[in-house]
Design goal:
Layout (H helix, E strand, L loop, with lengths): L2 H11 L4 E5 L3 E2 L39 H4 L5 H6 L2 E4 L6 E6 L2 H10 L4 E4 L4 E6 L5 E5 L2 E4 L5 E2 L9 E2 L2 H4 L28 H17 L4 H16 L7 H13 L4 H14 L3
Parallel strand pairs: 6-10
Antiparallel strand pairs: 1-2, 1-3, 3-9, 4-6, 4-8, 5-6, 7-8
Helix pairs in contact: 6-7, 6-8, 7-9
């Protein structure tokens, strides 16, 4: 039995939901039907949670404390290739403030109440008792990892875990983001055009914008699924332009999505469709 598998089973025995990570801190894509941000974001879901796939889902939604799954045949190959163990902080009511460099650590020491800390390669994880929405880049070098994300297990750390402060919760309060110009890869076409008129494409883009701006939950998942639908319908004939993509990105950014998350969702959708 590998060292990482032993660590995972030990954590699971204490109720911690875990999953294997491959090199680069990336999860194994063990559920092709649920790619990236679509995991845990099923239509009409009011709260986050794993999908109902027959196999463990991708990324955070795959995390489990079931030893039969962890040591079973589904993950047997993954553990042989794994480079680290990850866990779902929100699944056990925790929040990890991921401080990515020395300046971020200095900011935390000035600003946040003391709690359990774990050293990382470049900074520290500050772990608080209490779950909250997750968000990346809430300030320079600071990510919040709690619900619907995974964090690497780097050891128990030192200090006493304290309650999640309002100072941390306030970091993810979304404010309207300035819409930035976007440059993304738009399919060049080659397939048969199904558009009866330019109005068909215009109506599709307008409906996609409305779907994004109307969502009140699972924004990441909605953006990804909308990009996937647009590219599936309009992306193979060459009619889709940079201007259309920019409209979709602008709609996503008004909901608080960062340009990087938009680009990732667009790229992942194109990959899923083989574009």
């Amino acid at each position: 039995m590998s060292r990482l598998l032993c660590t995972a089973l030990d954590l699971a025995a204490r109720g911690v939901p875990v999953l294997p990570l491959r090199a680069g801190k990336v999860p194994f894509a063990n559920c092709p039907a649920c790619l990236y941000t679509s995991c845990g974001g099923r239509p009409n879901m009011k709260t986050p949670g794993p999908c109902t796939c027959p196999r463990p889902c991708h990324a955070w939604a795959a995390a489990t404390a079931d030893p039969n799954v962890i040591a079973g045949s589904t993950w047997s190959t993954a553990w042989k290739q794994a480079a680290a163990v990850a866990y779902h902080p929100g699944g056990i009511g925790l929040t990890v403030v991921d401080l990515d460099h020395a300046d971020a650590v200095a900011w935390a020491r000035r600003t946040l109440p003391a709690t359990r800390t774990v050293p990382t390669t470049r900074g520290e994880h500050w772990i608080y008792r209490g779950a909250m929405p997750s968000a990346n880049a809430v300030r320079d070098g600071v990510d919040i990892k709690s619900t619907m994300v995974y964090a690497r297990w780097l050891g128990p750390g030192t200090g006493t875990t304290t309650d999640l402060p309002d100072t941390v919760r306030a970091l993810v309060v979304r404010r309207p983001s300035p819409v930035r110009p976007v440059t993304v890869a738009v399919p060049t076409g080659g397939g048969e055009c199904r558009h009866r008129s330019p109005a068909y494409l215009e109506r599709g883009i307008a409906m996609a914008e409305q779907r994004i701006t109307a969502t009140t939950s699972s924004v990441h998942a909605t953006v990804y699924r909308t990009f996937l639908a647009v590219l599936s319908t309009h992306g193979r004939c060459g009619c889709l332009t940079d201007a259309h993509a920019a409209r979709l990105f602008a709609a996503a950014q008004t909901k608080g999505e960062s340009p990087r998350h938009c680009t990732d969702a667009w790229t992942n959708a194109r990959t899923a469709l083989g574009m």
